[in-house]
Amino acid sequence: MFTRLAEAVVDPPAAVTDAAILLRRFNEPGGAAHTHAGSLAEQAVSDAAELTPEAAARRFAESAETLRETTAPADTVIAYPFVGSTTLAVIAETALTEATVHLLDLAAAVGGVEPSPQALAATRDLLIAVPDPTAAVEVLAGRAAPDAAVPAIR
Question: How many domains does the structure of the chain reveal?
């Protein structure tokens, strides 16, 4: 995925410049999280059946190395499915959130390392920005039922 970033660069401006907006669009009724959930789940099960722990660790290490070596500015605009285009900063923020959520899944399932405090804080900050602000405040203040704002993502 990360090795194809150079091929994805497009002319500005980006259609989406905020990670919360990207996640909101993906997760709205009729969004990709709903319309593609079945096929994504099937693909994940298929991929997982063939993925060894060593290969998974190698994939994470290689992806991290590729990102460290990427010298493109954060405001570089790339083509992105379902929204047209976005910036590398939005993709990085979204990827950190995805990795953090899935690392929590893994830690709960088999134990081991948990996300860093910085990753958890960044993920919390992004996830709280996805739902309507008034609904989120009402839920967090105990004035509304949780389903008014959560889950923020599917």
Answer: 1
Give 9-46 pLDDT, tens digit per residue: 999 999 999 999 999 999 999 999 999 999 988 998 89
Question: Is 154 contained in some domain?
Answer: no
Look-up: residue for tokens 């959930």?
Answer: 37
3-state secondary structure of 86: strand
User: What are the residues whose beta carbons fall under 8 Å from the beta carbon of 129, sequence distance 6 or more?
Assistant: 19, 20
**11 within 8 A of 77, measured Cβ to Cβ:** yes
Q: Is residue 128 part of a domain?
A: yes
* Domain ranges, residue 73: 2-148
Q: What is this structure's pTM? A: 0.85
Q: Rounded CA gap, 118 and 134, in Å?
A: 26
Cβ atoms of 90 and 19 within 8 Å: the answer is: yes
